[in-house]
Amino acid sequence: MHVRESSGPGRRPPAGRRSTQAERSALSRSALLEAAARGLSRHGYGNLVLEQVAREAGYTRGALYHQFKDKEALARAVIEWVDETWRAEVGGPADQQADPVAALLALARGHAVFCRRDIARVVMALRTEFSGQDHPLGREIERVSDTGVRRVARLITAGREAGAIPPGPPAGTVALAFIGALEGAVIMLAGQAPHDELLAARAAAGVLGLGAENT
């Protein structure tokens, strides 16, 4: 997983110019978030070791605690970072589609591409780890998930109103099935690009009651 150097708070200063304290702090925060995301994806929250996160990022444990007060704060920041990245890389392009069906299929395709990266596995790993538990991080994961369901449900409702999506079960129920089919597809097709993108879109289209020709 690589942080995009073209944008975002972790962007490096141009060659020949000394970085400011704010830029150095942003770079260290970005590196620590990236290392923590890898650790959470591989080992989960319970087995995440902060010393190892700092070492993999190239910083000391003291530098990590300068940015994050404890492990929970670090994990919460990773969840926020992953959510922001998803919204920028997947949600944003989908929102540019005027047609609800096109937006939903863009979400499906974009999510499949996004899930090729380690960063995407953070949410899946933490959702599994905190399932059935009343934990602040579990609640944060549910908040992110619920936001995604509501986004899909709104698009389904708009598509039905436009006559592009056939009627059926409540939009919220179909939205849950849409996300379930999408996540199941990308999990089972991990490492099988570019087929993961196409088949994720077809799985999503099937839930919506659309034919494969729409993908």
TrEMBL record:
Residues 26-86 form the HTH tetR-type domain. The keyword Iron-sulfur does not apply. Residues 1-24 are annotated as: Disordered. It holds the Pfam family TetR_N. Keywords: DNA-binding, Transcription, Transcription regulation. Residues 1-10 have a biased composition (Low complexity). PROSITE patterns: HTH_TETR_2. Residues 49-68 bind DNA. This is TetR/AcrR family transcriptional regulator. It comes from Sphaerisporangium dianthi.
